[in-house]
Amino acid sequence: MKLGIVGLPNVGKSTLFNAITKAGAEVANYPFSTIDPNVGVVIVPDKRLDFLKKLYKSKKKVPATVEFVDIAGLVKGASHGEGLGNQFLAHIRETAAIVHVVRCFESKDITHVMGEVDPLRDIEIIDTELILADMESISKRLERLEKGVRLNDKKILAEREFAIKIKAHIDAGNPARTIELNDDEKTILKDFFLITAKPVLYVCNIAESNLPAMENKYTELVKEKAKKESAQIITICAKIEAELSELSESDQETFLKDLGLEYPGLNRLIQAGYNLLGLETFLTAGEEEVRAWTIKKGFLAPQAAGVIHSDFERGFIRAEVMSFDDLFRLGSEKTVKDAGLLKSEGKEYLVKDGDIIDFRFNV
User: Fold this and answer.
1) pLDDT tens, residue by residue, 227-252
2) Number of C-alpha atoms within 13 angstroms, CB side, residue 359?
3) N or C: which terminus of the chain has fewer CB atoms within 10 Å of its end residue's CB?
4) Cα 64–69–71 angle (5° rounding)?
5) CB neighbours (10 Å) of residue 310?
């Protein structure tokens, strides 16, 4: 899962990025990894792995990971190369979803680049830059398609018709993700690689004084906008997340309790990302390792097996499946089996979050 963090200057974007990547650095098994100066990999918090590692006496634990890209150079005019606009566009096209950090706090010490705090205006500035970039992209695509029309190829004609439709929608100032499409059009859209087609998660950055309520007059405005777009929204305090990232796990729990919070913002951010992209996790466990695997919701057993290795999918025979909840409740694989809850599933089995699976295959 690769998430691109965007936002205007001084909204707390970099503070959040630094906090979440530092949190990842504290896990010895999967240290923070700098791929580029503005890319960080963090683990997905999952206490189920700790239980499984202890139960199976596994040699290692391999959690799922999330890649966060701190998109640089996003200012007004970025679509025309202002700031680090070209770099920004290249990075964001590679992400699966956009995490849009919106300033929802007032501060005399941190000036807003646009003067006053106005989250809807800030969102519109970034949306406009993304839309302008897509306008240019779709126009170039349409030019190429027009040249191929004379070939009378059905695929080219369908793409051209779709390009005209999506161009009219974007030219009217609308993100591509807000257009209604049939299944065929959704397939074509994926091949257009439009930035505004990516799902969006709004992250409202609030002041510490807004905890633990997690809302204020600004977050309500963003919530309404997100609702209209069918986008997701979470509220965090980046300043608090930065402080949390400096603490040990036990001190974090105490600090969160004092603030009236149950989980760090990172946990909620990752969970929201999973929900946004329609993802879930299945688990494998044994003496060598316990591991979390990220898949799309709706994957059948052979597809899930293919995430581990293509041979597993190609030679799939069956899947031995039990739920983590059953194993946790009953305490051992034997008691799960004795209770008739360890099941042999075939090719049509729909994998569920928290399934512990042992795949049988032959190639």
Assistant:
1) 988 889 999 999 999 899 889 888 99
2) 26
3) C
4) 165
5) 11
For every residue of 331-363, DSSP letters joined together read: -SHHHHHHTT--EEE-TT-B--TTEEEEEEE--
Residues in the chain, pLDDT under 70: 23-37, 72-88, 111, 113
Interacting residues of 28 by C-beta distance below 8 A, sequence separation 6+: none
Q: Which long-range contacts (CB under 8 A, 24 or more apart) does 242-250 make?
A: 242/15, 242/18, 242/19, 242/22, 244/19, 244/23, 245/18, 245/19, 245/20, 245/22, 245/23, 245/26, 246/22
Q: What is the pLDDT of residue 324?
A: 98
- How many other CB atoms are there within 10 angstroms of residue 336's CB atom? 20
Cis previous bond, 63, omega within 30 = no
Q: Is 45:24 a contact under the CB 8 Å cutoff?
A: no
User: If we measure between CA atoms, which residue out of 204, 199, 201, 198 comes closest to residue 222?
Assistant: 204
- Please tell me the predicted confidence (pLDDT) of residue 50: 96
**What six digits make up the tokens of 233?**
């929204």
State which amino acid sits at residue 64: A
Q: Is 307 helix (H, G, I), strand (E, B) or coil?
A: helix
Q: Please, are residues 23 and 42 in contact by the beta-carbon 8 Å criterion?
A: yes
The DSSP output letter for 66 is: E
pLDDT at 76: 59
pTM: 0.84
- What pLDDT does residue 118 have? 94
Closest-CA residue to 312 (of 320, 301, 322, 326) = 301
> Residue 243 half-sphere exposure, CB side, CA atoms within 13 Å?
13
- pLDDT tens, position by position, 266-300: 889 999 999 999 999 999 999 999 999 999 999 99
Q: From the CA atom positions of the chain, what is the Rg in Å?
A: 23
- What pLDDT shows up at residue 31? 36
Instruction: Say how far apart CA 162 and CA 238 lie, in whole Å.
Output: 41
Cα separation of 327 and 293, whole Å?
18
What pLDDT score was predicted for residue 80?
A: 53
